[in-house]
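Q: Please design a sequence for this.
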């Protein structure tokens, strides 16, 4: 395991350089940074002064080297809209988005695990068909529609939860449910399929033949082995939850990086856009690494090293 983690961390380094180059190119794709940052009344002298200040008078490769050097020092540039370092601005919003993503994942897990188990244990029954129909419906409904319906029912009609904003647990409920519903629908179907596959394995039949109570068979032999695909979907979906909060954060006025990214893209504030993309990429890389490590804990048969530990 230690050797695997060491190799994985070494593989992260070239990945980060590739990501940094792609993010660096975003500036040129968006247009001339000087034109974006200066008002229309700016003179040619102002343009030349800002070009030198940004280092855009240097060759392309020197600009990239300087960008990577600054990035390694935690300097991702300054937001010309918010007039503060882009990295500090993103870090302020990241914690709020991580909280929303974590609560949404928790909602998805709480909903999907019991529903998936019920659908698998009562295969081809009315319960199974009902849960499958609910899963398909939940996957088909767009997030913005779910959010609006929740606002109309729980905020406008009954005034149980606030319409928008953040700061309290009550503000967190509706956005978390909105994001968690679609993920729960996908995880429910995955858990059902995974449990059905494990139930048919020989070791489960052997455990039953030994006279073990069905609850012990399900908890010790079926459920733990069926968790591996679930860990996969959690590892893949968590970074997507962070990057996909734009719609939900806009609907509920949640002050996370989703809304920040949207406003930065509209204003072409490329320092902020670059920083958010890089942070999400880092989270994705290390989430995948953590997912692989959890595999090892769930199933000791999985080996990452040629040598025994």
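A: Design:
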């Amino acid at each position: 395991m230690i050797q695997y983690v060491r190799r994985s961390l070494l593989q992260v380094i070239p990945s980060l350089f590739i990501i940094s180059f792609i993010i660096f190119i975003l500036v040129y794709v968006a247009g001339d940074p000087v034109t974006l940052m200066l008002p229309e009344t700016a003179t040619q002298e102002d343009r030349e002064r800002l070009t030198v200040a940004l280092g855009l008078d240097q060759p392309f490769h020197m600009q990239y080297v300087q960008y990577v050097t600054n990035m390694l020092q935690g300097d991702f540039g300054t937001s010309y809209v918010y007039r503060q370092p882009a990295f500090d601005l993103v870090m302020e919003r990241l914690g709020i988005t991580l909280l929303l993503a974590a609560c949404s994942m928790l909602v998805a897990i709480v909903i999907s695990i019991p529903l998936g188990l019920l659908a698998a244990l009562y295969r081809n029954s009315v319960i199974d068909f009902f849960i499958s129909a609910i899963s398909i419906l939940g996957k088909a409904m767009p997030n913005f529609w779910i959010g609006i319906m929740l606002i109309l029912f729980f905020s406008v009609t009954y005034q149980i939860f606030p319409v928008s904003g953040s700061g309290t647990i009550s503000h967190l409920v509706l956005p978390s449910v909105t994001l968690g519903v679609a993920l729960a629908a996908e995880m429910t179907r995955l858990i059902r399929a995974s449990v059905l596959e494990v139930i048919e394995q020989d070791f489960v039949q052997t455990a039953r033949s030994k006279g073990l109570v069905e609850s012990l068979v399900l908890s010790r032999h079926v459920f733990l082995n069926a968790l591996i695909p679930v860990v996969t979907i959690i590892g893949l979906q968590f970074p997507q939850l962070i990057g996909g909060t734009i719609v939900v954060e806009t609907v509920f006025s949640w002050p996370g990086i989703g809304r920040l990214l949207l406003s930065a893209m509209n204003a072409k504030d490329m320092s902020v856009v670059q920083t958010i993309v890089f942070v999400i990429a880092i989270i994705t890389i290390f989430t995948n690494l953590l997912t692989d490590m959890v595999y090892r804990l769930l199933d000791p048969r999985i080996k990452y090293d040629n040598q025994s530990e």
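Q: Thanks. Anything notable?
A: The chain has a mean pLDDT of 82. DSSP finds 13 helices and two strands in the chain.
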